[in-house]
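User: Sequence for Ovostatin below. Tokens please.
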Amino acid sequence: RIFQWQNVTSFQNITQLSFQLISEPIFGDYSIIMKEKSGRTLTHQFTVDRYVLPRFEVKVSAPQTVTISDDEFQVNVCAKYTYGQPVQGKAQIRVCRKFFSSENCENNNNEICEQFIAQLRNGCVTQIVNTKVFQLYRSGFFMSFQTTVTVTEFGTGVQISEKTSIFLTQLLGSVSFENMDSFYRRGIPYFGTLKFSGPDNVPKGNKPLRLELNNRFIGNYTTDDNGEALFSIDTSDIFDSEFNLKNCYPPSWLAPEYVDAHFSVSRFYSRTNSFLKIVPEPKQLRCNQQKTVTVHYTLNKEAYRDDSNINFFYLVTWNGNFSFPINVSADLAPVAVMLVYTLHPSGEIVADSVRFQVDKCFKNKVIMKFSKEQGLPGSNTDLYLQAAPDSYCALRAVDKSVLLLKSEQQLSAESVYDLLPRVELYGYFYHGLNLDDGKFDSCIPQKDIFYNGLYYIPVSNYGDGDTYDILRAMGLKVFTNLHYWKPEVCSTEGRMPFLRPLHLDAEGYGPIYSAPPRIASGGGLKENFDYVEQAIIETVRTNFPETWIWDLVSVDSSGSANMSFLVPDTITQWQANGFCVNGDAGFGISSTVTLEISQPFFVEMTLPFSVVRNEQSDLVVSVFSYLSTCVEISVRLESSQYFEANISTPKNNGSEIIQAGEKKTYVWTLLPKTLGKVNITVVAESRQSSACPKEATDQQNLNWKDTVVKSLLVEPEGIEKEMTQSFLICTQGTKVSNQVVLDLPNNVVEGSARAFFTVVGDILGLAMQNLENLLQMPYGCGEQNIALLASDTYVLDYLQSTKQLTEEVKSKAFFFLSNGYQKQLSFKNFDGSYSVFWQSNRKGSLCALTFKTLEKMKEYVYIDEQVQKQTLLWLSSKQQIDGCFKSDGKLFNNAWEGGEEEDVLLTAYIVGAFLEAGLNFTFPALRDGLFCLEEALQHGVTNGYNHAILAYAFALAEKEEQMESLLQILDQSATKTNNVIYWERAKKPKTEASRFFIPHAPSAETEKTCYVLLAVLSKKTPDLTYASKIVQWLARQMNSHGGFSSTQVIDMGLILIICFMRKMLLTFSDDQNTVTFHSEESSEIFQVNSDNRLLVQRSELTKAHGQYTVDVEGQGCTFIQATLRYNVLLPKKASGFSLSLEMIKKNSSDTFQSNFNLTVTLKYTGIRNNSNMALVDVKMLSGFTPVMASIEEVNNRSLKLEHGIIR
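Assistant: Structure tokens for Ovostatin:
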């Protein structure tokens, strides 16, 4: 939680809030959560990332489906700039049919792929793909094609990719029934629609269809352009309780084939043989229009005598139809149900209903419109807004490039309607109670009927429809003495009558609630630039916002507003929309309107997100001419004291000719000299040329000068380091002060230092906002994944016990646990053991950690019991006769390795895991393991780490004597300084020293300290004073994300902090602290209380060095952290590793080389037999980004890792 607002109020039901992200935010997804007083929450996500906006979009058009009889199919690719002009470049089209693993002998087949490269013409290209190579009739392959299209812009090398899937089917087409009624009413024609669709579900016209009723030919029909054919059936002579319709396409093949359609129609009951039928409307109704409803009817005239007027309020005959209009408005959206009925003189309700789908519209009709559809950069434009009088409106306009970068869930009529708790009534169940009054008509006695010498037995036909079904489907209760039920035959003796349930448990009819979801998915310039004078048209473009309009506007009493805006300098398309609220008319939303901004001649720069100081990078400049004829152009880069620049492309004496509709590209090599944002200015000029036709000059001015100024972020060189000073300060009405000194090392890269100060009321507040990022490293292996799962589980335990668990955090944590469990199973072997990597060596310590963690997770997510039993059996099988577990030589951290005592170490770890998982002491493997540990202790244990883990194991086993003796030994070897206690290794490697910042301890030392603290806290009467000094040291090891330095430490560290806070009995119910962070130049105050204890309050410091004071006053505990980040150059010293890089150009005829292969070679050269897990962090050179396809390939390689990179 990084920001929060409480007791938020609104103006005319609209609230606008904002907050500022820090300069170095955590990249990833963020959630905005709104909680209503009722407890309901709404969530909207946004992403924070490093990005460069795309300048063009790629659209791929391919058939949805291809049949196995097709010889070829077509893929169309189009690329256009956001301002509508075509892209000049080439398209790489890759079509693959992937092979899936099966039990036959074809397991080792690879995917079949075809690749095409073609140049775009007018921004588009069409590729015919021959299907023969894909072996369509062969099994073992997925029934789909995966198509990947990559468009590369000429000159800049910018690439944008799009993917699409094409399904492969044996079906040549299918027929279906549309707009069908499940019941027929004898005497009223039965209407319906036949439809023919191709394999891609596209309707096909001029197709012959055959209709059959109970296998009896009805007629032949031909589909129209919509693939539909209407039919009607005379039901006057149909008495069947049900008839079956069949719609088929005459050709019949085994494979490929056409699919027939079948539909069953039941009889509708009426005791007077009177019926109504409302003609349905298959299409969705548009708002603010009239819909004419037509009703067919047939009425039994016997009871009417001489009446000619009945309750239709229309003059009718005994058979026929009538129509009446209805007004379609927002009141009917999104679904409206109409009932038409009449009261027959014989005492029967004759009725029918119809369901209309209505556009999702609103009473408040909002219209937005720009004064013109196209314009020039920096020009003025008007935005017209129309809504209900006195509405309050929110408007926005964003660059189309932003939406291309990542499509977002925009506010729309659909998303607003999804928020509403829509109720569609069906049935008479309410809150689980059956409110159906039951049938008041008595049943018909089951007496045999004698007719024409035969006896007939009456039976109930439960398949018939009746008026009761219609009313029940609408949720309507009827108070009447008229008949609207179909009759039922009385049950015979020995058969229980059908009884309706008094209470509905899990199934049945009732209101269907649609719960609101968590909001947790052209051509060129048409304006005629008619210039007479040939003076230079000069433009200077410096304003390039991503969001142009974000404003709140009031509409006057006339219902309109007209606003003027200055158009930004971006050559793009702006997309604008808005919504309005009015007390009477309610909510309304506009459709999206666009404004296309361009000019006939302009220059664009292709810049990376950032570059590194003193690293060369390429500046690519493109000049676009949409003038009516060719012109002479010149381009220059303005010099600057902040960078050096050398042009890489030929100058041609400073000018060259550019044709109409052409693009020219120029490349400069930049060498930045200063940090921060550096302005880069490029000037492009066009002028008339004697080499070009002169008649065009009479229509359009050819003399343009376009200047573009953009900023480039320059970052410091070297590798980033982070130092933290952390304090857990608990007060009881007193004032506590601590000194914070920001001290930079001598080898810091100039200008790279920055610092911030963090205050949070709960020590786990940092961890809570980074549940998925605590490790600050990939969690792809089994150890990292299970450690993260363990920490999330303990965090959940703590929040539940302190009543701080919100639905938002609970949902997020459950998602991580469920997905992490599935991922952990991918490291499980067939025998129940687990490996660090898939199908690698089995590890006893990893199996024990996984077993105890999954046991703990059972409280929150489903864990397969058989999986746990299998792991337990595997661990038990590794136990030796003496009760010890044989070490596999692969411990979490090779700094722990203790020679002959490694078996004791692993045994203590597994025994501790068994005890944490809650196994009984009678379990043989646990009982024998404890015996092994007791024997080892009697014979003498010399390794200090073993002392710590043995003490914890004996504490869990409640063996006080052994535990106390080990804790005494450990206390003698502890480091006690500045009111903290911790344990160091005897042969500790040297670390960079600082007078004030204590470097994070190696993971081996932190783990040893954690085990000692676990043992102390596991005692029946723990020494909390002693424990608090260890916790203070642990708090100092926390990084700025609330985590620790390794997977094992993060698991144990969070467990210990949680356990300690529980022991201290800190409920935080009345906590209120004031934290003052000040220096001689500045001062800042933070308030910490029970309402914001999980809120991470952070302040960036203006100076990254100097002395600060922290004062804490009040009641309760507060976690305070000062973070200092800076860069240092990689020192040339022995590190235990040998690293080399090689970058090779790919063969290409392009002038501007954009693709390279990067090979990273890493060797371990240290003194141990092997290293711990190593991570290779490849920081790209300025202007380069990795090709994601090559990153994916790395996952499938074991030794040789070769990356592709792109400028």
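Residues 720-762+1068-1129 form a domain with the Jelly Rolls fold (CATH 2.60.120.1540).
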